[in-house]
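We modelled the chain as a single entity of 292 amino acids. Its sequence is:
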Amino acid sequence: MVLRPFPLRMFFFICLMCALAVPAWAGDTITWMEAAMSPYLIQDGVHKKQGYGDVITRIIQGELTEYEHGEMVASVTRQLYRLKQGEKVCSIGLFRNPEREEFIYFSLPSFLTLPAVIIIKKESQARFGNKTTVRLADILNDKSMMIGLSKDRSYGIDTDAILSKYYGGGNILELTGPELSLNLFKMLMKGRLDGVIALPDEALYLAEQMGIRAQLATLAIEENQTGHDSWLSSVGCAKTPWGKAVIDKINAILIKQRPTERYRSAYERWLDPNAIEQYRRVYREFFLRETF
């Protein structure tokens, strides 16, 4: 039998079909960086992957079918480093500030969360004037106070503006590494801190997990009560052409998904029931109108 040479045109046709059979997203993976901040993102335990950030991540990933998706746990400091390096990484909810905007493309707001508060031990309320709302500047001007927070984390534009004036003053303790919030709460309970800055849902969740809720009090921060900018955070991706393309697609997803009950209830699940009515009003009247 004589073997005929394989037609060159057929060879190129087969190569073309093989290329088209490979999904467009092959090799293009978004790595979603997660911080250990329950109930925003929950990495273990009975509520694993049920945090409000976990729910929103799944919603966005489900729409971005042209990409593969990976996840990694990283401190805020590590997240910012990788974003600065221009890697193909994103974070589901970052507070915007001018420094971060130099190396991060931000989506329109992806989360509406109640603003940061100061968590204290109930037995210490007299030191804070037995008030439920305090001025953060007054607290930080008192050099006998020691306030704990997470290094490189943003707590919203209004709170950050106050904190930036007092770094290096000796009474702000910054921690980095895993389980930041948990470690700060442990230091508070041991008397090594007078207060911890945190988001209210985060504080409520941790206090219940540690069995210390009845021992703690929450103080509202006067400076972040005047507007809602400190309630908003966004998806952030590296400031590269790749990151811009991802953010453009995420913006379209957010416009479609934010009005849904599934999206809104992701955060509501972790609220004190007394706060839900206020939250829904602000969500409807402010959050859904934010398209910057």
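As a brief sanity check on the tokenised model: Residues 104 and 188 are 33 Å apart (CA to CA). The longest helix spans residues 241-257.
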